[in-house]
Amino acid sequence: MNSCSMDYVIGIRHNIHICNWVKMPENEEILIDKTNMGPPSAKLFLYLSIEFLIAIAISCFISILGLIKSLLPKPPRDLNGNVVLIVGAASTLGTSLVDEFAKRGCSVVCVDEVNDSVQQIASDLQSRYTDLKEDTETSQEKQDELRKNPKITAYQCNLLNHNGIHDIAKKVKNEIGGIDILVTCVGAAGQDIFDTANTTLMSHYWTILAFLPSMLDRERVHIVGVTPVVSNEDAYIGSRTAIASTYCFLHLTMNLICN
């Protein structure tokens, strides 16, 4: 049988097959059967189309669920057992915050300049919500006890003295332990620009510096800054703006550290 180019006609059992002889670099010959190299069958195309449609349907369903979840309001965080420290607890707004946190089962630490007022607030809320127990446990046992039986304590502190704020921070750490939520509720209007800046701005700033290092060891912490009075005085408005900027900078810094 003679060959023309590289094509051969081979007859086997009266069947005609068209084959190619492909020469390899090593001068080896491989027989390639062209009879089975046709287009994909309709059944295979149908299966692939069904799988593709199922994948699209699942993706759309997951996207719709994500959109619905983003529109729904997030459930409030369970604050039961958290330790909350409120600076400026004797103010009207501060007293309301102490009451609300105590209702939610938090152990509240009240700090203010007026000792009689802050002690009275702590005593009233303590008798209303919890039973005060003696602290004879270790530091870890104190934390476990506070989460099971929250209590309300009070400390007197001069909020214009940064050394006094640092001393209170050390005392709270030794007697209470770490805190989960820090609320600075300090501010006063009707003063000159220097007193307003010291009372409204610097009290927030020194409080954050004093308590933030001990809060970094906690799993989750919150720092909230509010001013308890409203005023149109330029010095007071400027101090409030500076407080907002301080908390924004703190937020950005903590994000960089944590990430």
Keywords for this entry:
259 residues, alpha/beta, elongated, SDR_fam, oxidoreductase activity
Could you give a short description of this structure?
50% of the residues lie in helices and 18% in strands.
Description:
This protein is α/β, with parallel strands linked by helices and 259 residues long. The protein has helices at residues 42-71, 92-103, 115-129, 139-148, 162-175, 193-215, 234-258; strands spanning 7-12, 15-23, 29-33, 83-87, 107-112, 152-156, 181-185, 222-226. It has a 5-stranded parallel sheet, with helices on both faces. Strands 1-2-3 form a 3-stranded antiparallel sheet, with no helix packed on it. β4 (83-87), α2 and β5 (107-112) form a beta-alpha-beta unit. The chain is elongated. The termini are far apart. Mean pLDDT is 76; it is low at 1-24, 27-32 and 131-138.
Which SSEs are present, and which pair or pack?
Elements: E1 7-12, E2 15-23, E3 29-33, H1 42-71, E4 83-87, H2 92-103, E5 107-112, H3 115-129, H4 139-148, E6 152-156, H5 162-175, E7 181-185, H6 193-215, E8 222-226, H7 234-258
Parallel strand pairs: 4-5, 4-7, 5-6, 7-8
Antiparallel strand pairs: 1-2, 2-3
Helix pairs in contact: 5-6, 6-7
| C-alpha Rg (nearest Å) | 37 Å
Calculate the terminal CA-CA distance, rounded to whole Å: 77 Å
Stretches with pLDDT under 50, minimum 5 residues? 1-24, 27-32, 131-138
Order of helix and strand elements from N to C terminus = EEEHEHEHHEHEHEH
Family: Belongs to the short-chain dehydrogenases/reductases (SDR) family.
Pfam families: adh_short
Keywords: Coiled coil, Membrane, Oxidoreductase, Transmembrane, Transmembrane helix
Transmembrane segments: 44-67
